[in-house]
Amino acid sequence: MNERSTRRQFIDSSFRILGFAGIGGAAGLLTRRASGDAVYQVDPFKCTACDLCRTSCVLSLSAVKAVNDFDKCGYCMLCPAYMDVMSQPDEKGIPAGKVCPQDALKRRVVGRVDPDDPNNNYYEYVVDEARCDGCGKCVKACKPPAGNGSLRLEIRYARCVECNECAIQIACPDRAIVRVSTPGMAPTKLT
């Protein structure tokens, strides 16, 4: 009887262990599936453009890039994110230095050029993703009161290798890198 009890206990405990292992495995599978629809995003309201997106990403050229929200952009002649307004002015009195050390922020004239009054000229500012290293200097310069906040940092999913633990999220002192669940496919833009 004692041998039977021991065998029965062994079989019972074995089935329990297998049952718990099965439940644990199923939970792990469901968690991986659920996180498969989750992506990392930069919360523009928390981000202070501290430069850690550039230096902490596992990629040599960070997956975080600056993006211009054209609906908010003022198309200004003297964009504080484009021109270093504290730099030495040129012969026309316009600051000669640029904010972006990679020269990734490009501008082009929108409409007709007014040579008599440069303040009447409007410009579209576009980020050259291939040159942008995610330093965030333009984003900082675009924040109010100097700018209007149209520039922000964004994780570019075409470059992101989808680390299970995003190195940038771990390094971010502002907790601005958040993991968001997205049904279907990953968003290309934080709204």
Description of the structure:
By secondary structure, the chain is an alpha+beta fold. The protein has one domain (38-181): Alpha-Beta Plaits (2-Layer Sandwich). Helices cover 27% and strands 17% of the residues. It is built from 4 helices and 6 strands. The chain has helices spanning 2-36, 52-56, 137-142, 167-171; strands at residues 38-42, 64-68, 105-110, 122-127, 151-155, 177-181. The strands form 3 sheets. Strands 1-6 form a two-stranded antiparallel ribbon. Strands 2-5 form a two-stranded antiparallel sheet. The longest helix has 35 residues, at 2-36. It is rod-shaped, with a radius of gyration of 26 Å. The protein starts with a helix and ends in a 10-residue tail after the last strand. Residues 29-35 and 183-191 have low confidence and may be disordered.
